[in-house]
């Protein structure tokens, strides 16, 4: 099976302007997907359906840290545009949003999984490290921040966590799986694809 | 028979709004007399100040201030109806959660409402939290209803955000617009070929939505190459400096200038923010216990404070 992470002999990869541009474009995609996800099933700051998480995982798998930065940046804007979270709360979500993205990127590189998901192993790596673990981190951190900001009570945290985790994991698996399967063959041949974390 | 008809030109309709990322901003607004940096500071001020205020009446007042500013800014209030579902469902969600999971504090006061036991303290806390959230959200809505992407960019650059960061923010906001435009093109192409989404089952509509992303990502990849080549050809570097090492001229920023009213507005906001923050941190002035409604309800229900 092809190892897309393996450098070819003599191949040198350096971060360049194409990565910065891709970061911006990917952030733009995240803004749209995140905003319309929040507006489609509006349940407020406890996001019950947020396909934006799929974009976060995909971003770091394809573009390493550039995708991770996009994962942190786009919710700041999409949450403001959709009205799902005020600016200070969105800023507090930032570490979890970066982690939500980077966990998948780390796992695919660590386990040498193919982003096109050709085997069952690749699917399991994506489901576990691209959907379940990041959403557990995101939901735990997000609801903790909501308690810290005094927007929900401590007692309501577990119910909020479950709503957040389940509501985000399902669109991540469906949307993320499809996009990875069909778009990855194009991306891995592009200049912007990162075999390592920055290039 | 005279078949000649006279065509008179209809009076031209003056445009009242300008398209922006998600909605429209007014063509003419008193906000435009202020520098974009002042408007950005207003956004931060209105978004952060409610964090220090736990008294719901004050946050409701702040909400009215936001609505008054929207009206003063000539924003079409009708356009804000896209936010109505979120405003109602947030309330439903927050109150459902607090009724289902109120917590087990023995100091909570049980109340019988429609045959269901609810607890006063967590319910009033949720009521106060809801108005804090809405006050903060309307600060955000005000900003995005009176500022275009370009003004956000100028505001960020005026606050000395590094070139590469402001470039990424600017391009990402433009990319969101381009992404939506591409999405519209793909949908129209499908409709022109006879696709009727209304006749489709919900599950098929969801699948179709997923399938839109494939050409959209492909376009984004191609566009990343085109834009990076164009930037390279124009001599752009990530530092924002020219080949001689000097900072690149910022044309957009040069078209805006500060006036006395900007300094007055910024000073006013900073003073209010600092006073609010310090009085809450050191004297707990805006604590929920000081809410007149809370005091009234506690007295009416015989709940000790």
UniProtKB/TrEMBL annotation, chain B:
Membrane-protein topology: Multi-pass membrane protein
Output the CDD domains linked to this UniProt entry: EcfT (cd16914)
Keyword Transmembrane helix assigned to the entry: answer is yes
Domain of life, per lineage? Bacteria
Q: What protein name applies here?
A: Energy-coupling factor transporter transmembrane protein EcfT
Keyword vocabulary terms for this entry: Membrane, Transmembrane, Transmembrane helix
GO terms for CC? plasma membrane
- Kindly list the places in or outside the cell where this protein is found, as annotated in its UniProt entry: Membrane
TM ranges are 21-45, 51-70, 82-103, 123-146, 158-180, 263-288
The record, for PANTHER family, names: ABC TRANSPORTER PERMEASE, PROTEIN ABCI12, CHLOROPLASTIC
Protein species of origin: Candidatus Abawacabacteria bacterium RBG_16_42_10
Pfam family for this entry, one: CbiQ
